[in-house]
Amino acid sequence: MEDSGLLDAVLPEFSSQHPGYVIKVIAVGSGEALALAERGDADIVISHSPAAEERFMAAGHGRARTPIMANDFVLVGPAEDPARVQGASITAALAAVAAARAPFVSRADDSGTHARERALWRDAGIDPSGEWYMQIGQGMGEALRIASERAGYTISDRATYLALSHALYLNVLVEGDEGLRNVYSVITTSRGRNHAGADSLATWLAGSAGQQRIGAFGADDFERSLFEPLAPRD
Q1: pLDDT of 177-216, one tens digit each?
Q2: Domain extent listing, the chain
Q3: How far is residue 169's CA from residue 152's CA, in Å, rounded to a whole number?
Q4: Residue 144 three-state SS
Q5: Architecture of the domain defined by 6-70+182-229
Q6: Which residues, at least 6 apart from 11, have a Cβ–Cβ distance to it below 8 Å?
């Protein structure tokens, strides 16, 4: 959400409508965000790691969890496509990348994207390792930059890829698989210090005003929304 520019496009409108609240954004992967919230260091979390979110809620760390938007993951790589993955299923594509030992960049940062990447490798029956599998411990923008520089592959959310694509030598090679759908949820936290502010922001994001802003994001630049708004509550 940070690398794509969505937060800068959406949050100022909430702030203008709710001047009593100041939003401080900590842009980290979903795993780290949930860990911050578990420690009481976040009032609200937007995450896209469903299994981790379910564990978080089951442990009593969250008060409410609401899906607010979705996009999809894509496998991107160089136009030359040395592993010959274009148009394949995602599991077949990952198997081809591993067999070719083509450079693959993993965020390796416990983010929602990293969690999905690891699940997709498991689905393909592969435990990736070796010099070709680069674990960088950094965010999506940096993973895309390194993949572009190394003529390698990576899994990205479509929004960040499109937002940065003008500076990348990467193409979308695999898309559309059911396993690539990417749902984001807003969670109000149990140990947060400002329940009222968190509830106001969560309600706004899930309501018509926030959903309209989410649905409009990217349309002017890419002729399509970068995020699919899910049904508003109001």
Answers
A1: 988 999 999 999 999 999 999 999 999 999 999 999 999 9
A2: 6-70+182-229, 72-180
A3: 10
A4: helix
A5: 3-Layer(aba) Sandwich (3.40)
A6: 23, 25
